[in-house]
Design goal:
3 copies of one chain form a homotrimer.
Chain A lengths: L2 H20 L8 H6 L3 E6 L8 E5 L2 E7 L5 E5 L13 E3 L2 E3 L6 E2 L5 E3 L17 E2 L1 E4 L2 E5 L12 E2 L7 E11 L3 H9 L3 H5 L12 H9 L6 E5 L3 E9 L5 E10 L3 E5 L14 E11 L2 E11 L36 H11 L16 H18 L14 E2 L5 E5 L31
Chain lengths: 440, 440, 440
């Protein structure tokens, strides 16, 4: 190589190292954190926000979320600006949250509305504006926007599944992880791992599904995966043979920048779906800080849906189905056999923030590479003053995330950004084997 | 503003920021720590110093306190100067403390008095002088002086309450906090908080006291407080109406630089005291390091004293009287209703060392500001070689801390440094409604 | 002193301070750690290495030890070089260890032998060589060499006791300490402490042994100890009177650089050994990092050996025989009375890494000083490219560590490097009272 080429390669290398360092950051002032602050984030479930303030750490900031006596939710800096007592121990009042120490009271927009120990004519209230972030409640979730347009933020994108009324929607919180949120997202962008990790224990599969199981699991063959960038993020598509050369079985996993995921199907694409029994699975990540996050999962169960199948979330005792041996001294013993636990164990094992400079990526990491490119572009967009991917400014955006799971005639099958973009506009959705447009 | 004025304001601002950083420091070589080292500090209760050495951290220094076989208390550096084994595991001997490792023995003044594994004619003992601090026992407390005059320290100030023999004195230790001692002292210098914080739960008050309770608590009105600098520190005085325009009800809270506090009255001044039933409450702080301290409380109960009333110290289970709700996930649940616990929760919530640059002080913080001025002056005095406030060099000083609690005729009522100074000289004490001089 | 002499003394002082800082270091790139990497180290007991990989930290490096399906032990870097998942959760396969995440598989020499998600013609395997260290199993122990000659390391020195077949050899692991390994070794090089520390509780000794016990323990007299540098490390020899001026009782404690120790005799030399009942005690240190190590102990019990006596290792409840008093709030209460626990308490009390610049060494520290000189020399040898002490390059070295414990005629008694060197060559061993050469 010429010196010029070497220097250019060194710059590219160094630029990639810099990207690896910036990617997992979530705090204010970091490239990662500034990008994240252009989106709405889940704070907690509405049902859990009652008559006690709750300390929440969001994107490295210590905040308190509360519901005032009139039912309005608010999100404020956790320390009272007077003498720094924690508003986690504040008192709910009709019009705001009162610090228990000296009675200073704040409304949901951080305005100081009472200072009872000050003289009647005191103007001190007028000089205080406490840290606040706008909050909206929708779909059973309290959402916030922590970015520069907080006085007039872009509209909250609604989540299609949470808007459904043709089935039962369930929401679950409380699954808190002690590592960076990108360990989780990269796992999701990398569906190739399913063949190995989730195939370690060969499960009891109904006879009619065995061929599909055998095809991938028993031979540890890679799934035929395609990764497609969409206008909401990216999706991974698997197209499997069915025996009938005119019909394929398609499964999809989708990520919406920066914290949403969706997969469909009880068995995430391994078995075909001969019936309309289908369970939409998905959720979103509450990013706590660089090394902690919480998973908020949801599911939609419609009439006739298969109700058995894989566990929704982690088993409470964090035990898998593998035998727990007496000589096993690891943190997780007998952990194999339950996919959500398998993912937890491997993601956590990568380290709080993996030192990605030590990686050796290969072809199976195409999804991970796509994710990083999307994050890189979003960070650059924000740094240069542009809206990043998946920030929409029209009223009432609805995130319709296509995660098709079913049979497709080969002449209907088209995979690519042009015909499988975001389903927000209803365009490009894959049709089912009867030619019917599939919703999600 | 002119450039000169701006520069001057910036210097003042910067000087105040520097003060805020220095105030909470307790270690050797810090301005705060050097000031603290001019005073006697409590180490432990005499009753707890028996036949086992006790590791004690004092002002960021790791020490061991012990009582030799002859009954003398000593305070030494915790690590044996020979090979650094901890003297916490040393053996009590008649004339000192023996390191369990090689038998080197030290007397209460750090002199090495035995090295049994060395040859009979060894001079090694003579070259060793282990770190030691002078210790005195008085009033049930082991005291030490850790300053530059340790060979001939200023006399130990006695504490009036602990010298009393007309009632029962109780001493209690073991209340260790995980935050800076100034969080506690500033809370005490700021009695305005009582109306809000200790009024969150309206308690069951005897009928005859209700008016006083209603006046302050139910309306969250600020108490009429005056703050007075004294020659021992500062005090806060509340003068309340009684209904009789010729008679006021007076309550006092006092701080003695740097670790003593006193309040009188079972109910700390809220209700009037129609009888002689009175309970002196007070104590002192054992400063462990920048983020830990221990409260040593005492009380004097005399004949006829009201024996109910507020709790002395923290409830063992750290539970208040408020209902504990199932959705309360905070560290302290149902914490409201017991003043000592209310104070703990709010003080701890300010942070291990509060970032005071984020404060917004107001008129209710006059007491806190006075405290900081006194600390500032004491640190400056020490830095410039002068004795700080409340270091006395006469023999046998007695800290008579006036904390009057009772009725006063308006023509007797004078509040100010001139007539309400330290009561060490018996001067300036407020008289009761019969004109009798009130002790404390 | 002249200026030149002062400057020279300052340099010597500064050079000693530097040595004290370097001595306890164990990580790669440190002088201490580079020296340690010239030796074979124990990793775990063979019996414990079964069908589950075990995370092991060795000399500050995070590794995984495993046994493949063909029975070969391997030691690899803990993180899979693909995407950094922990191989602690890998799967044992016949020919190596498979990462559970994407199935990449490594043999015991770090070669990547499978990448099942990559295309059949992928060359990615060939570009991966994972961190590995050579492993040998011998004597019930898995050993490794982590130095620069890992492709062709010097031969593993065998341990005489572990090769014995004339008695029962027991191995015990699991005693993990939270401080630097040199706290332990310096304790062993300093047998003078036995008189004080292990004499704190006077034990119930059989009548015929009382004189020896009384001589040393009851008077806290120093043992008559000699320290001798050997070609394997150093040994400490005690020569005690027996009453017969022609016969001495000799006891020996030996250290082999850098992690082996040996002592003989149930009672470590205090009582004489009138019979052939003898128990070889010894072991080795697994150095985890600068502040953690594990003790791997072994013993050889031969026919007729005394089976009572002192405990082998720590009592499980970490309680001594001394009364546990209610006012004892220390971490170890009533700790006196069991030597292994006494040693633990005092070693731990010196601090994770003692600040040796604060020491005051005396004549009883001759053994400690010898140990430091040996370490200093070994570190300098390694830094200058020479083999340090106790690295042998001949085939099949056997570490025959002379730890004689018994009676000697005065005319047989010679102590010194010339006639009590390493017993690897069978030379210089002390004879017993019948003139018979004593093995170990």
């Amino acid at each position: 190589m010429s010196d010029v080429r070497i220097a250019s390669a060194a710059r590219a290398q160094s630029s990639y190292q810099q990207l690896l360092d910036e990617l997992p950051r979530t705090g204010p002032g970091t490239r990662g954190g500034e990008m994240l602050r252009r989106y709405w984030h889940p704070v907690c479930l509405s049902a859990n926000l009652q008559d006690i303030p709750i300390a929440v750490r969001m994107l490295c900031e210590d905040l308190v979320v509360f519901r005032d006596g009139n039912g309005r939710a608010g999100l404020l800096g956790i320390r009272c600006p007077h003498r720094l007592a924690s508003l986690e121990y504040g008192q709910i009042r009709a019009d705001g949250l009162m610090c228990s120490y000296h009675g200073w009271k704040y409304d949901v927009q951080g305005r100081c509305i009472d200072t009872p120990l000050e003289p009647c004519d005191s103007k001190v209230k007028e000089n205080i504006r406490h840290l606040w972030y706008p909050v909206q409640e929708w779909g059973g979730v309290v959402w916030t926007y922590m970015g520069p347009e907080k006085e007039s933020p872009p509209p909250l994108p609604k989540i299609d599944v949470l808007a459904r009324d043709d089935g039962v929607v369930k929401l679950a919180d409380g699954d808190i992880r002690n590592y960076n949120y990108l360990n989780w997202l990269e796992n999701f962008a990398d569906m190739g791992h399913a063949t190995i990790l989730h195939g370690l224990v060969v499960r009891d599969i109904p006879d009619e599904l065995k061929p599909y199981n055998d095809y991938t699991i028993k031979n540890y063959s890679p799934l035929p995966l395609e990764h497609v960038e969409t206008d909401f993020g990216m999706k991974t598509v698997a197209v499997l043979d069915t025996g009938d050369p005119q019909v394929k079985f398609v499964n999809t996993w989708s990520l919406v920048v920066p914290v949403h995921w969706r997969f469909s199907g009880i068995r995430s694409g391994f078995p075909p779906d001969f019936t309309d029994e289908r369970q939409e699975g998905g959720g979103m990540i509450r990013i706590i800080d660089d090394t902690h996050f919480e998973l908020l999962r949801y599911s939609l169960t419609r009439k006739g849906n298969f109700t058995g199948g894989w566990l929704f979330g982690l088993p409470k005792d964090l035990k898998g189905t593998a035998e727990e041996k007496p000589n096993d001294k690891r943190r997780y013993k007998g952990w194999e056999g339950i996919p959500a636990l398998e993912d937890l164990v491997l993601q956590e094992s990568q380290g709080e923030i993996p030192d990605r400079r030590l990686e050796h990526l290969a072809t199976s990491d195409r999804g991970v590479i796509m994710l990083r490119r999307i994050w890189h572009k979003a960070m650059a967009d924000v740094a240069e003053g542009r809206d990043p991917k998946a920030v929409w400014r029209e009223a009432q955006p609805m995130l319709e995330v296509d995660t098709y799971h079913g049979h497709v005639h080969v002449n209907e099958l088209k995979i690519g950004p042009a015909n499988m973009p975001s389903s927000r506009h209803g365009a490009g959705l894959i049709r089912d084997k009867d030619g019917k447009l599939v919703f999600a």
